[in-house]
Specification:
Structural class: alpha/beta
Low-confidence stretches: none
Bound molecules: guanosine-5'-monophosphate, manganese (II) ion, sodium ion
CATH topology: TIM Barrel
Number of domains: 1
Shape: globular
Mean pLDDT: 94
Number of strands: 9
Strand content: 15-25%
Amino acid sequence: NRVAAELRTALAEGQLRLHYQPVVTLPEGTLSGVEALIRWQHPERGLIAPGDFVPHAEATGLIVPVGRWVLREACRQTAAWHAEYGAAAPATVSVNVSARQLQDSRFAAEVAAALRDSGLPAHRLTVEITESTAVGGGSTAETLGKLRDLGVRISLDDFGTGQSTLTLLAECPVDQIKLDRSFAPVPGPDVIATAVVQLARVLGVEAVAEGVETPEQAEHLRALGYEQAQGFHFARPMAAGDIAAAIEARA
Ligand code: G
Ligand code: G
Ligand code: MN
Ligand code: NA
């Protein structure tokens, strides 16, 4: 179809971009990592958000080459920040991956190649999966095991919204849980926010609160025990150059 053809052109002609949203520590607000988020700089339609093309890419299988580009670009950029800024650079980069990518038996080898070619140490890469990604079948479980063997970190995204997340945690060890942004509002359903941070502590994994938009939400989540957060209150997703400017402003 037309979108698929245009996406192939986008890949071939370099129209895809990555923006990076800071993840910060609570309560300090220090940069602890970034999440890479794809955009499409379309020649006629301007900057297109992932929600408007990632589903097409998934449906057509183009998410496999698109995701390969995302991974390589995120690793390259993060290695470059480390070369330039050392310890002031974001410690980790998180990359969202789709079920189709994890089902591809070549995925772990592609991750290994992206790390090797960029020089980024494996522990600086976090792969974000959702519940639906992780129960995708195929060689998914095997792939996740291979990624952990490489030393890549796994984060369970949008946590708290699914149906079988607890089963999943038992079967697939992760390094981080991201509380879905629907649980950030105060007053809100903080039974879930409380349970998730306690679960993370019991499992010995990091807990990140997402979608934090106000100082009240940040303080509330910190008081519950969240040690990291992400959201418009701290910073919006931004171009790589703006991340560099933010690092330089603090240095
Ligand atoms: O920026 P926005 O809120 O429109 O993002 C919508 C969704 O797109 C999010 O759930 C995010 O995880 C997903 N997304 C962003 N970048 C990527 C990417 O590089 N690959 C995949 N598979 N999903 C992405
Ligand atoms: O599904 P995932 O968690 O990967 O989605 C990340 C998306 O959430 C990004 O597209 C980002 O733009 C969006 N996002 C980040 N911070 C906030 C926030 O504080 N509020 C809202 N509503 N969306 C946010
Ligand atoms: Mn995510
Ligand atoms: Na999320």
